[in-house]
Amino acid sequence: MKILNIAEKPSVAKSITRTIVNTSSTGHTKYKYTPVHKFVYNSDAHVFTSVLGHLYTQEFTENRKWTECDPIALFTTNITEYIKDEFRALKENLQHLSASADKVVIWTDCDREGEYIALEIQKLLGRQCWRARFSAITRDEIIRAMESYREIDTKQCDSVAARMELDLRIGASFTRLQTLNLAADKNVISYGSCQIPTLGFVVERALERKDFVAEKFFTLKISIVKDRMVNIFSWVRGNIFDKNCVLYFFRYLTDETSKAVVTNVNKGNVTRFRPLPLRTVDMQRVLSKSMPSHKVMQVAEALYQRGIISYPRTETDSFPANFDYNKVKTEILKGNRYNVQNTTFKGPRNGRNNDFAHLPIYPLKHPSNLAVDEKMVYNFIADRFIASISDDALLEEHVVHLSMKDENFTLKGTKIVKHGFLKFYHHDRVSEKNIGVFREGERFEISRMDSIYPLGEDSRTKPDNEHDNTSGNADMVDRLQNMSKCEPQFKQNSIFVNEGLTKPPNYLTESELIALMDKNGIGTDATIHEHIKKILDRKYTFKKAKYFIPTNLGHGLICCYKTLDLNLDKPDYRRELEKSLKDIELGNIDKESVINRELVCYRKFYLILQNNLDVMKDIFRTSSGDDDDFDGGSTPKDGVTDAYIKDNRKGTKSKLQDVKKDYKYKTGDMEEQSHNVKLDQEEFSDYGTKLRGSSKRNNASVRKVPTAKEENTIKSRSVLQSIVNDMTSIKKSRIEKMNNRAGTYLTDEENVFCDCREKAKTDLVKKGKNKDKEFYSCAKFPDGCNFFQWKGLMKLKDEFGPNDVKCFCGAGVRKFISNTEKNRGKVFFKCNKRYRPCKFFMWEDEMTN
């Protein structure tokens, strides 16, 4: 029997041939880039060639030129598939080889894209084709695949076809609209349902950093010299933003000769679990700290094609029960990189992810003569595998509890008892911390240290973990150790006030961006790195050192979507699409219904953008300037009080907020152009509960104890609680009773008010497709607001809240009617701003009561 084998790339065809047989003949074909390898196996004559990825290109049948049609027509224009002229020789080569073959077997990658490429080959040849499924280019895997050919999975192909059509229609229409109306010179302002949420993560972090206002915080520390070490005990109340509050406790604890007693010493073991088997996202996330993620995937792909590692694109983190890890371990240890003396190995742990196509990434053999980048990637994969079959690490933790006049302090120490996998895997580090030996009931005399000691001058600018905006004790211990040599008060046991400064979050690193994309379902294991590279190529962002910083183009684009309340920069829409594509693959839903649903949704978004191009142009104009404008928030000067910091919080808005005056987007004259903003009622209700209660906040940038107005007294209640109390004390007579609480609408169109709370004027459209159509606008325009509403568009009655109720940012409040099952018809108020509103929320009955 003569069998034609077709791989996805020439290098894979060559590697598989060499894996099956030692000798083969190689010949050239009409298409010089895809040579043919011939060999005999089990009495069958095999011919092995390849394609170069996808054979067919999708294109619109009409309207190919950007300026010959309205981009919205691309939502319905017919799409055709064809093979480019440059691949004509490849096409003829495959057809010629197929004509003389008894069977055709396709060896493309075992994922959705590989399945669709197999379908393209079958479509070209016009005959039955079989699939060989394998996860690594090893002899065992290849022989197993040759013994179990399968049919092409058409459901996977439908999933890819749906994704390709949606990406083409949505991407082309939005890209043309944005580029033709907003682009300067010949730049392309592209849109992609994955690249825009990726950019959204970058911009959101940059805005958080820019709007950040540093605040001073204070806490108490006790230093006890024991076993020739300075042991720093931390106050269990943590960091407090009210200096007077901390000074009150400081004086209370030191008003006489004070003693501290050790109330409890806890000693216990903590297990640090070995890592799970390696999946693609984890490989990208860790190695992107040393090289770009797209480079990581290029190197991994090259190692795979040479048979050095298994398939590098997988979502699986579990090996099957019959996996022979000892065989892989023996191959890895040939390199003598690991000291495995006194080390026991066991089967790897099982994770929760499985794509049912490929095993986790693991090394196949110990290579030689690797390039620098290849060596880095291979060593990481080998280290991860050895760590995954090693023992867990065991840590010993000591926690010392100290009490001083009913105020509690703690000290923690950590020691590695058993290194386990930590000997081989240096990407998971454990910091040991030695402390003195304390005994329960031990007493110490504590002296008072009147100076306030900062955490260090670099605490404002030193890059730190974004999730911990306060400095830890390590710098403090080093500082006190140095001070103890020259300042006698540090040689005795002391209590002192410790001052620090909250720091803004850093820009996103590539590792963090990959983690966010994976968590929110943006892209797949095979495409995440492509989306990151795309926003760099489009100049939406750039890398400075290891951080992603948005350009003005990227910042302006995301702010346009935010201003119009489209949420296109959020991951929700793409995440839901990925779930639908998975359902197509599983046969739970048909391709056409997913395509139609998505196109209807994005057509509405397109119309909103189209009707608000003037708003978008204004935003782009105000976003011009240096790309380094995101400089990391403001920092208080020395001697500036907390009250000053708090009062000037409003001055840290991004540039866009200064010019965006709560634009009200124009909804047009078509039914599908209406756009309803969905309110997360549970989120608002939770926040209202937080205001009325006393939620604990662990982030150092959030007040634990509010600052007093003049810093001369300590309030007995929090600022947030006092705000709620002030609001609930408003007299019932000052609030107009709301009618039609079940959600009825205006019938008297004479009572339409703009955002200035003035009666709106009526006017006619002078030209265009809406000529002679009536609309409402601000009577004071252009000096007033930018209110716009077509006449006849229904609007909530008495939409604005009472004049004497202000939200946290002072912008006023707006009335809404809940549509949730639990609170249906119930009226509530929230901030009036459409772009980045504050977190104000209050039910109507909370005011009237």
From TrEMBL:
The record's Gene Ontology biological-process terms are:
DNA recombination; DNA repair; DNA topological change
Topo IA-type catalytic domain location is 153-606
Q: Where in this chain does the record put each Toprim domain?
A: 2-142
Q: Which GO terms describe its molecular function?
A: DNA binding; DNA topoisomerase type I (single strand cut, ATP-independent) activity; zinc ion binding
Q: Which domain of life is it from?
A: Eukaryota
Could you tell me which residue ranges the GRF-type domain spans? 754-794, 807-847
Which reaction is this enzyme known to catalyze? ATP-independent breakage of single-stranded DNA, followed by passage and rejoining
Q: Name one GO cellular component term.
A: nucleus
Q: Which family does it belong to?
A: Belongs to the type IA topoisomerase family.
What is the protein name given in its UniProt record?
Answer: DNA topoisomerase
**Annotated source species:** Vavraia culicis (isolate floridensis)
